[in-house]
Design brief:
By secondary structure, the chain is of the alpha/beta class. 40% of the residues lie in helices and 14% in strands. The chain is built from 7 helices and 9 strands, in the order αβαβββαβααβαβββα. The protein has helices at residues 3-38, 52-61, 104-119, 133-142, 157-160, 199-214, 243-253; strands spanning 48-49, 67-69, 78-79, 101-103, 122-128, 163-170, 218-220, 223-228, 238-239. The strands form 3 sheets. The chain has a 5-stranded mixed sheet with strand order 3-5-6-8-7. A two-stranded parallel sheet has the order 1-9. β7 and β8 form a beta hairpin. The chain is globular, with a radius of gyration of 23 Å.
Length: 259
């Protein structure tokens, strides 16, 4: 190789290094700015994702952060979104066009539970899964009691997409299993340790709890229907995205269940 050619090659390599360094620096600045935009704090000092582009950036950085539709993961799924009606404890329409979403690893854990229940002849009824943060604020205005409603100064696992309210139904008849109370009953009868119930009801509650805990969920002592998935490192952020926004984002990403 001639001295001129060698110099030209070294010059080209130097240009490539400079270009790569510049790209890395620009990427660093971009993601720093994006991070600052994503984690806007509210009046309680909580970091809440409020815009769909913030959510999409988070998912691009970590695909396990995606909120996925449970209908794509769970066969014969039923829903009964009372918060999408006025027939709930607030007497208000709390959200429109609801659908059942959970974070990807939580959806997979629930899929595992649903498969086990299905083998026993039961399907899942979802009352509530992901819930926008603004809905939690409205609920607290009606029932400011953290035994039954999440304090908006802390936020809810529903706002993170890691909690689910559910029950079971008989796949053969389509009828719900008899449980201690209806959904969102704020009495001791709804507590996990309330025992003054018919034997079949006690067994149904036990069946639901055992199936969910065996798949990694934790039961709430005051609500037989409520189960949360662990997030010990605080990986999942609070969100205030509408179901319409999530539907559009999911359709655009072409998100599909992966068994």
């Amino acid at each position: 190789m001639t001295r001129h050619a060698l110099f030209g090659k070294r010059h080209q390599n130097l240009q490539n290094i400079i270009l790569l360094t510049g790209c890395l620096l620009m990427g660093s600045v971009f993601f720093s700015a994006l991070n600052a935009q994503t984690y806007k704090k509210n009046k309680y000092g909580l970091k809440i994702i409020e815009q769909i582009n913030q959510y999409q950036a988070r998912v691009a950085a970590d695909s396990s952060s995606a909120l996925v539709p449970l209908k794509d993961y769970i066969k014969d799924l039923k829903t009964a979104f009372v918060y999408g009606t006025t027939q709930n404890f607030t007497g208000q329409l709390l959200y429109k066009n609801p659908a059942a979403y959970l974070r990807l690893p939580v959806a997979k854990a629930l899929q595992h539970a649903a498969d086990k229940f299905r083998d026993m002849g039961y399907g899942l009824i979802i009352y509530d899964a992901y819930r926008p943060y603004s809905v939690t604020q409205r609920m607290w205005e009606v029932v400011p009691d953290n035994r039954y409603a999440a304090d908006p100064s802390h936020g809810s696992g529903h706002n993170k997409g890691i909690c689910v309210d559910l029950s079971l139904y008989d796949l053969r008849t389509g009828e719900p299993l008899q449980m201690p109370t209806g959904f969102d009953n704020f009495t001791k009868k709804a507590h996990q340790d309330y025992m003054k119930l018919p034997e079949n009801v006690l067994q149904n509650r036990k069946l639901l709890k055992q199936g969910m805990t065996a798949s990694g969920f934790k039961a709430l002592s005051t609500e037989w229907w409520h189960f949360s998935y662990p997030d010990p490192e605080g990986k999942f952020e609070l969100m205030d995205l509408s179901f319409h926004q999530l539907e559009k984002a999911t359709a655009k990403s072409g998100c599909q269940a992966q068994n």
